[in-house]
Amino acid sequence: MSPTYDVIVVGLGGMGSAAAHHLSARGARVLGLEKFGPVHNRGSSHGGSRITRQSYFEDPAYVPLLLRAYELYERLERDTGRDIATLCGGLMLGRPDSRTVAGSLLSAERWGLPHEMLDATEIRRRFPTLTPGDGEVALYERRAGLLRPENTVAAHLQLATRAGADLHFEEPLLRWEPYRDGVRVHTAENTYTAGQLVICPGAWAPRLLTDLDVPFTIERQVMYWFQPEGGTGPFVPENHPVYIWQDADDVQIYGFPAIDGPELGAKVAFFRRGTVCTPETIERTVHAHEVVAMAGQAARLLPALPGRFLKAATCMYSNTPDEHFVIARHPRHPESVTVACGFSGHGFKFVPVVGEIVADLALTGTTDHPIELFDPRRLTALSA
Ligand SMILES: Cc1cc2nc3c(=O)[nH]c(=O)nc-3n(C[C@H](O)[C@H](O)[C@H](O)COP(=O)(O)OP(=O)(O)OC[C@H]3O[C@@H](n4cnc5c(N)ncnc54)[C@H](O)[C@@H]3O)c2cc1C
């Protein structure tokens, strides 16, 4: 007979590991299926650091979710003793009318979030590694900072296991179908049945969720680590914020303080300048011309940063057309399937609250969190 569960979670990356934790913490019998090993580097949740912030330029609708995510991240650190969040402060830099600055200010004002507006002189005085242009300004948020993605995933897997979840690694879902009041799921090893299916597929969404009818675009993104000229001293998190800078041509870069000691440098990357790929065809080699382009752009804001190139790594964004998430009951299988995907390069800071929302949806069919923005039917021909 097929082993039976309350909920099967497919994909144990950022979102799926959080879902497995929140579901099992509420007493559900959970099976987690993951294509690769625990905490791997072939999806979207690796590379040592992710920015977190609350004055959200993407849309003020995200702010209540961020406030909850901050609480849950704090609890996750407490419950597991792992080093996850470093709130070293964050700067959203650019022209006053750039989306990065104006959008952040809109969210800060709408939600009464603590923030400061700094002009170029003040930015240079307080953060001497940075050399913004004279017309540029920044919103400074003291509670912004960074999260460690690998530690986050490991913490959620640890708590899920502790609560009794069965987590199967190197066991991809091959296919599933509706079965009685729930679903039947097939892997190469076994067939399982459950009342509910949760799909958190990351960059595999186009393959696993064809009948969602959302036109996802999977993008290759590169992260770069440089050893700053003169060493990492001025770049340590005690002295250095995370930053997102939008230049006059609307090119955005973002970066981090030096969090891994004097030898491992500081990370910087382009935001949204990827090339279309699939998880099977992604070019993992980073080419010299890419390093040159990154060093050139970073040097305009942080002249000392690109002293010596250390390493680079690739990662994938799963973009929706409007860059907002998809978190919902599956419109074609509303009784038994929940989906969380299309995080469009900005999902990590939401990981624990997405786990909570997915657990709500799978166990009760609804959630008190505001997720109207994430309804997939906005992107498809399916009627609401
Ligand atoms: C370079 C880069 C920088 C980023 N920076 C930030 C940032 O600063 N701040 C921020 O908030 N966000 C950031 N993001 C975005 C954020 O990291 C992602 O939104 C988030 O990690 C997505 O998590 P996920 O669970 O959807 O995907 P993943 O963590 O990739 O998880 C999906 C999982 O599904 C598994 N899977 C796929 N198919 C199957 C199958 N058939 N059976 C079983 N398992 C399967 C995969 O192996 C994978 O483990 C960044 C992303 C990248 C790539």
Automatic annotation (TrEMBL):
<dbReference type="Pfam" id="PF01266">
    <property type="entry name" value="DAO"/>
</dbReference>
<dbReference type="InterPro" id="IPR006076">
    <property type="entry name" value="FAD-dep_OxRdtase"/>
</dbReference>
<keyword id="KW-0274">FAD</keyword>
<feature type="domain" description="FAD dependent oxidoreductase">
    <location>
        <begin position="6"/>
        <end position="361"/>
    </location>
</feature>
<protein>
    <recommendedName>
        <fullName>Monomeric sarcosine oxidase</fullName>
        <ecNumber>1.5.3.1</ecNumber>
    </recommendedName>
</protein>
<dbReference type="InterPro" id="IPR006281">
    <property type="entry name" value="SoxA_mon"/>
</dbReference>
<keyword id="KW-0285">Flavoprotein</keyword>
<comment type="function">
    <text>Catalyzes the oxidative demethylation of sarcosine.</text>
</comment>
<keyword id="KW-0963">Cytoplasm</keyword>
<comment type="similarity">
    <text>Belongs to the MSOX/MTOX family. MSOX subfamily.</text>
</comment>
<dbReference type="InterPro" id="IPR036188">
    <property type="entry name" value="FAD/NAD-bd_sf"/>
</dbReference>
<dbReference type="InterPro" id="IPR002204">
    <property type="entry name" value="3-OH-isobutyrate_DH-rel_CS"/>
</dbReference>
<feature type="modified residue" description="S-8alpha-FAD cysteine">
    <location>
        <position position="315"/>
    </location>
</feature>
<dbReference type="InterPro" id="IPR045170">
    <property type="entry name" value="MTOX"/>
</dbReference>
<keyword id="KW-0560">Oxidoreductase</keyword>
<feature type="binding site">
    <location>
        <begin position="6"/>
        <end position="36"/>
    </location>
    <ligand>
        <name>FAD</name>
    </ligand>
</feature>
<comment type="subunit">
    <text>Monomer.</text>
</comment>
<dbReference type="GO" id="GO:0050131">
    <property type="term" value="F:N-methyl-L-amino-acid oxidase activity"/>
</dbReference>
